[in-house]
From TrEMBL:
The gene is leuE. The keyword Translocase does not apply. It comes from the Bacteria. It is a multi-pass membrane protein. This is Leucine efflux protein LeuE. It comes from Streptomyces lusitanus. Belongs to the Rht family. It is found in: Cell membrane. The chain crosses the membrane at residues 12-33, 45-66, 72-92, 125-144, 150-173, 193-210. Pfam families: LysE. Keywords: Cell membrane, Membrane, Transmembrane, Transmembrane helix.
Amino acid sequence: MFGVVDLPTYLAGLVLIILLPGPNSLYVLSVAARRGVRSGYTAAAGVWCGDAVLMTLSAAGVASLLQANAVLFGIVKYAGAGYLAWLAVGMLRAAWGMWRGRGEESAAETAPAAGPTGERPFRRALVVSLLNPKAILFFIAFFVQFVDPAYAYPALSFVVLGTLAQIASVLYLSALIFSGTRLAAAFRRRRRLSAGATSAAGALFLGFAAKLSTASA
């Protein structure tokens, strides 16, 4: 169908890949827990736009360019790792502020946390998605296995595969967003729980940054 081969295997692999934790899904969950459903979907929209751009770049051959050019790959890699580290530091600073004020029960108990001042969930999620060269390489390596080389319109095959990937991402991130809003109620009641969760998220983002910085093409 449309040059796509072995569709059941693609769908099975796609589900497993979507379920693997990563900086995108963790950030969406964090935003939903702190700021509610609307902000969660704003962050998710950034992820979907970023993934769409990466899929398009992969289909256009940019992944091969990154793989062949070590300098270019290194620039993108360290830029992405630096951005993830910057987000991690921001989360850890916010968590430290929560720990220092954990004895203060204020109006935060009845209103969602606003999150860092000036936080723009869409832009942050978009940048996290785009500054990940391994994601570009993954998309081309995964997609190409399910495109019939004899099909006359391979771009259409990539569109079909990408659409299915986005549908799976929408379902998964929606589940995370609504799970995050349930966590938000507990966070508002317990400052220590909120501080601990924010600390854990910051530590995970530092781990993502370290992993990306040591990645190779």
